[in-house]
Amino acid sequence: MVKQTANLVKGGRWKAWAAGMADRVRRTGDQFTILWGTRIVLAAIGFFLGRAWIVGLFSPFFLPYYAVVLQTRRTAAPLVFLSIAAGAATVAEDSHRFFQSFTLLVAYRMAYGWMSRRQSLTMREVPAAVFGTDLLIKGLDQAVAGGGNPYAWWTVGLDAALACILSFIFLQAVPVLSHRAKVRPLRVEEILCLVILFGSILTGVQGLTVRELSVDAILSRYLLLVFALVGGAGLGAAVGAVTGVLMTLGNMASVYEIGVLAFSGLLAGLLQEARKWGVGLGAMIGSILLTAYASDWHQVFLGLQETVAAFLLFAATPRRWIHYAARFTPGTREHAVSHQDYIRKARDMMAARIDEVARVFAELGQTFGAMTGRVPRRAEDLLHEAVERAAGQVCLSCAKRSACWDRDFFATYRAFSETLTLMDIDGPVQPREAPQDLRRRCVRTERLVPALWQSLEISRRDVYWDRQLQECRGLVAAQLQGVADIMAALSGEVRREVLEATEQEEQVLAALEQIGLHIQQVDIMSLDEGKVEIEITQSSCTGHEESAKLIAPLLSDIVGEPIAVGRIQCGGGEGPCSVLFASSKAFQVTGGVAAAAKDGSLLSGDSFVLLDIGNGKFAIAISDGMGNGERAREESGAAIRMLEQLLKAGFDEQLAVRTVNDVLMLRSRDEMFATLDLALVDLFTAKTEFLKIGAVPSFVKRGDEVFPVHGRGLPIGILDQVAYDAVEHTLRQGDLLIMVSDGVLEAARHVEDKEEWLRRQIAEIDSRDPQEVADLLVETAVRMNRGELPDDMTAVVVRIDPCRPEWATIHLPGVRQLRRPMGPSGRRRAVEAT
Question: How many Å is the Cα radius of gyration of the chain?
């Protein structure tokens, strides 16, 4: 053994062995706690409930308690049975009371076994079974004793009724002690039922003293201190009142304890923020104040000693026990933290699940992308397949096959290849038009030439569908990757923590109330620079004006950056109204649209959209369907609607355009073409990305200067692979962006350089109003055709304006700028300013 230990130490395995032994001991202790810890606690409670009597006449506590334990924690029932019997034996003045208590327990156990064999006993049936058993046994005992007077029968009925009521109470309290209800916060009813259970235990402790100090008084004050620290003044006063009433039922001389304990619990709860010392001081002051008026100084001193003893027991209670109890008590800080932890875990689980799905989509996208990267078949391979296919149809049954393919293979193969090359260039040929070398060698030219053409068509079809399949795989890969990116971004949003900014919320609330607003709630979701989000809920709807004129300017001063109204959610009428205030963007877009249909029709083939995508970008798009009328409107409308939905969903603009193109190709066998002119304006930097697919040039007017923005590419829906150039320009404050359909540009039919003509027309317009500019452009195009409308015309004009707040900031004396929470570097992102 000594050698083995030395080897362990020498080999460096001693720590591992010690850690393993410690882990075994810990697991053994945990198993013991799980198996016997709860049983011992329940048995101890049963012992004191077996001792509990009300004014020496009623003992309604132990039977409902045993019944509930038997129903909810059956493994602990035998030990509880014995502990109740032991408790009853310690207070029974004669053997009759003990025999009655023991008979009640045995009778209920027999009744429970009989009912369980017939059918399962439910929770709702336990109080009825307790009432019946108590009434039957005590009624028989009263009858055997000689019947007695009506008062004796009245006490029997009242005892059974109290036992029934306590059954309902213990059904909610016992599961809390037996670890059945510790996975969720406790309801107020469960907390009160638990308090009543503890008060019932105190009734069974009466009569026990330690050096003239009453144990029940010490424990009642201890409970009062614990609940006051956990739940505050309300719970402390409730615990004091309930325990005082239950103690008075056991001893009517303690009636003054009701007021003493209730008032002490109230004062202790009011000093909750001072933690244990404040709670103890409050309970001591309450005890002294009321005891001094109800008793002599000896009793006052005795009560003070009992309070001090309770406080010492309270001070010795481990802090983690109190924190653990506070986690399940609604309204406590620990409960709020626990609830936030639960929400965080649920959010992390949801985000992890979204990440898993995103990885699946990304993997699928990579798989399809790998398929599209395959090298296409070479022309030599296709030629070889076509030759083999034709030779298999014609040459296999020919008598000269061996002469052509065995003895003169290369010359025969060259003749076949020359014929296929000629067909590939000039199309099908007649047998007499075939190359001379083939006609000289082959005796079946009449059959061979059509077979070669058919084989060439099959190869062409294979190449076409192989290319189509590759392009579809590429589209699917890009779309799957786009979905994966969106889901990854969504996962990041789900994981984003809601900012814990109680101090800042109170500061905002105080500032808003200072200017006379009635605010229900302030929730700060983000204080990051440029990404501030503050939601304010008012008791009644005041509309957009008050939010824009009062609240937003005040928040701008408090936060230290421009704040604007994001959205308003109002149920209408006098209900609450929630307004989201967010960081104001650097630029805003003001737009105007003018349109006219061909020949004055009501239905134009042009479609347009001006859309705030929601991620700091603004989209302007025009689509011109080929032709005019309803069909053109359907083409352009489909393109715009799909583009709008894809951009709002978060798809990249280039992937969105490609998806629209492919959908238009696949949705119908008929030709459906539409141009697409898209401009995406970044509202933070004014950087604008132009995507033009079959669209005419756009124009940017900066002061007196006008310059065009070109693009290339056929309309969407024509080619499988849409081709376009993404052009970027950084716009400036006051710039006008003019986008038109081809009907406006082509209005000057007799002008050679139409682009230059439209540029001059834009330059000659003095107005800076987007709507007026759009109207003048369409009007000029109509006048160029002497009032006729040869095509649909649409002009969209937007102006880039600085996003200045409409109202000046409001500064209140004494209101300081918000302190932003700690950033990742550990330093504050903004300094508190006066």
Answer: 44
